[in-house]
Amino acid sequence: MAMEAKEIFEALSKNVREMLSERGLGLYVPPYQRPYGWDKEKVSKLLDDILHGYGTLLTGEESFTFLGTVITIHDINFTTVQPIVRPEVPAKVLTVIDGQQRLTTLLCLCIALHNHIRLAHGKMLKGKTTDSMSSVEGWLDGQTLRLIDELASTFYEKQASGDSPRYPRMIRSFDDQWSRTLSNAKYQSPIAHLISSYTNTFDTAKPVEFKPQKRDGHIEGEEALVERYTQISKMLKAITNGGGKKEELEELPTLKQINDDKRFQRALLNHDFPEDVSQNIRDGAPSEFQGLLQLVLLSSYVLNRVAVTVVRGKNEDYAFTIFESLNTTGEPLTAFETFKPRVVSAEGLPNFEKSQSRQHISVISNYLSTFKVGEPLQAATRDLLIFFASAETGFKLSKRLADQRKYLKDEFERYEKVEEQRVSFIRHLQDTTTFKEHAWDISGRTPSLHGLPVDATTDAVKLCLAFLSNLNHSVTIAPLVRFYSIALCSNSTDQSAKIKEFEEALKAMTAFSALWRVSHRTTANIDREYRDILSGTNSPTGLPPLARALRKDAPDDSFAPAVDVIRLKAELRARLAHADHGTIADRDSFVAEASLLPAYLNAPQVARFILLAAYHDAVADTENPGLIKKGKPAVSPCLSYDGLKDDRHLALEHIAPKQLAQGWDALIYENKEIAHRIGNLVLVQNDANSSLSDRPWSQKRILYQALGAASHDAAERVLADAKSSGIEFAGSTQSIVELATHMPHLAAIGEKTDDWTAAFVEVRSKRILELAWDQLYSWLE
């Protein structure tokens, strides 16, 4: 059956009075909405826009001030209202999806206008009764009472019965509850408390200036709300007192200008000033009269000529979609922010504070709170949920906000009725968060396995996490989270074994990725390999899905998800070798493929890691000068976290320079990729890298010998021998050589006395790759 657009949403322009004063209307702020946070500049801009429009009435009677779009859903079944006294809810509840900040500010403006008009009204009349008023005072008294009544209806509605009959027009989920009885009425959110506090002043005999105060304790948004109300109140006080020297009131029309402009009067009052009122203004009316009249006229403008476009969606999904389409200034809520109230609802408000779900949600919230609201927060949330969806169901979640909201909603609905299942779902999201925060987002810090014993973060764990993170190989986060989460959730008896399995899985994935990347010209769809492993598809070994749960629409549910490091290693080996995947059948095919590729251009971080793997416990091959071979264990440990961070290994240097220079084999440059192959690369200290530069091979090999020397004396002898042969280095280069730490892998290169050629680059490439394969492939076995 065809559906028309109007059945999904409607959009109407409404002035403040129409928007806020509708009988039976309640505005409801859902819990995922951020606290009130407008600053002084934003409120000043809103007030300036209103005053500008007000002043423009002098030149055009069609002047209106439009304040943008408010997006709501009409919650006819009160499904979003929690807590609730169902028989006492306002007849029409609009849940505010966007526009809460503007509406809250408008409510503050209406309250402040109401308060200052009452104060100015009392000052003008000075206790006079209707019989004792002049005709001029009587006219303004009537206008004032009408405006007081209209303004009051914008921020509260009086019920017909009960000992708590005044309903704040806007309340917030969980913090507030509409009710006609004091025992059930609850108005604790900043805006509901402010409205309730102000309406309580009506019980006093004489109007008093309303000065809201911040309550004790940290109540999010209250400090900002009190400050902004005070800001508005000060402006209205200035208007009442004639404007003073306030720059922001420069556009405020004078009473003389208004008195001379009949169109202005009709636009706001629907009639001209009576003649005696006009004469009173011309004669210089008392300041109390003038101040009150200005407030009355401005209030009429705010109520009738300040407008918003109210968009009502059929439900939350449609409302959020509309918001993303229309939003140009506000910052949309993240998918996690709209997910949190679903968790609260599933736990039940009374139970949420002490629930396990709340503990998990708090961890996630605390992590995301470290990002600035706006694009940084959106990006952090997007990435987190993409990794979570991969770990949870093997699903490649898009970055679109609507898709991420829908994914969380749909997946959570599978579990929300059963406590153990929904807690496991949320716990998995927390584990993804914790892993990303402490093991992945390291930015100069040492990675750690937060929540596990300190000794779980072994040197191998730190090495592999730092390598994968520096490489930004984020597709590995989800499969790593599966093993990490299992270790976190295991009991004390099993935890040591599960921690070991995490380390084995981490090393296996590191080896797989490094060997894959260095033997392929591009990434060669390595991301798809990991996604297939998570979802259990296209498996050469029949590996079940690694993700925590099967998707709703999974085509084959014959496999139950399994976290098994032995089977994972077998799968990675098979994928590396299979003709439809990595095509690296064995050591020889790996060396043949990788030795011809420009490792430096493809992925410098991977090339650096391969060199570290080759250098690990390697010594100079005395029978083949310029090469290294495997030595005894611990003779030269390089493949470690310290080795990865070691200053000696930070710079990836070309032995033969990138471009042909004097003293080098021209054949190296006939193929532009040879200079970038792994056999022409070496790891050196940063300072040494700049010193080596593009020197000819005859000089460079001497510097390699000196840098690779085991002692400063040995380095000085190398330089002295070179000097006696007619090769002398500048003082700065000598200083670097003398201060450099021992780099034994450079000594092997320095032993090569004949030319550095294209043919030798090929030989060295193969030797390095053989050593790296032997070291890394063992992690897959």
Automatic annotation (TrEMBL):
<feature type="domain" description="GmrSD restriction endonucleases N-terminal">
    <location>
        <begin position="17"/>
        <end position="342"/>
    </location>
</feature>
<dbReference type="InterPro" id="IPR004919">
    <property type="entry name" value="GmrSD_N"/>
</dbReference>
<dbReference type="Pfam" id="PF07510">
    <property type="entry name" value="GmrSD_C"/>
</dbReference>
<dbReference type="InterPro" id="IPR011089">
    <property type="entry name" value="GmrSD_C"/>
</dbReference>
<feature type="domain" description="GmrSD restriction endonucleases C-terminal">
    <location>
        <begin position="635"/>
        <end position="769"/>
    </location>
</feature>
<protein>
    <submittedName>
        <fullName>DUF262 domain-containing protein</fullName>
    </submittedName>
</protein>
<dbReference type="Pfam" id="PF03235">
    <property type="entry name" value="GmrSD_N"/>
</dbReference>
